[in-house]
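Severity: low
Component: inverse-folding endpoint
Summary: output formatting inconsistent between runs
Steps to reproduce: submit the following structure tokens with default settings.
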């Protein structure tokens, strides 16, 4: 499996910008410990829809390296969440902000606690896989019609 960095760089730049924007928009509630609001939920939904659209990207064309990188990204989020639950280290704070901040609005649906911390990377991976699978299906249909 060869990794095509030229194809993956724009994808991860978009994901980086999307994540930073979601953190910035959710920061007032997330950083101060306030409960999630409807606005936070809307930002979180848009964040996950953004991941869905990134995963649908037409230039991924069977890039299994995208799946490996996305799986590693959300897998790291799950590891950080588990460590954050059982051993709340201060060293993990930046990682927790990075993974939990954009999804702060899901707290409106799930409450704030262990379930939310574990659900964020699982939902993220699920949305990414759905987008990748849908994009792959669309591309196969296009090839079959040609």
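Observed output (run 2 of 3):
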């Amino acid at each position: 499996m060869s990794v095509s960095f030229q194809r993956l760089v724009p994808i991860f730049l978009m994901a980086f910008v999307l994540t930073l924007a979601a953190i910035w928009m959710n920061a007032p509630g997330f950083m101060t410990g306030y409960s999630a609001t409807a606005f936070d939920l809307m930002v979180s939904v848009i964040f996950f829809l953004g991941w869905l659209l990134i995963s649908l990207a037409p230039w991924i064309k069977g890039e299994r390296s995208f799946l490996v990188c996305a799986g590693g990204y959300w897998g790291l989020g799950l590891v950080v969440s588990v460590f954050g639950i059982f051993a709340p280290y201060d060293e993990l704070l930046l990682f927790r902000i990075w993974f939990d901040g954009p999804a702060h609005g899901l707290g409106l649906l799930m409450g704030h606690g262990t379930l939310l911390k574990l659900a964020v990377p699982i939902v993220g991976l699920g949305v990414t896989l759905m987008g990748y699978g849908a994009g792959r299906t669309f591309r196969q249909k296009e090839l079959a019609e040609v």
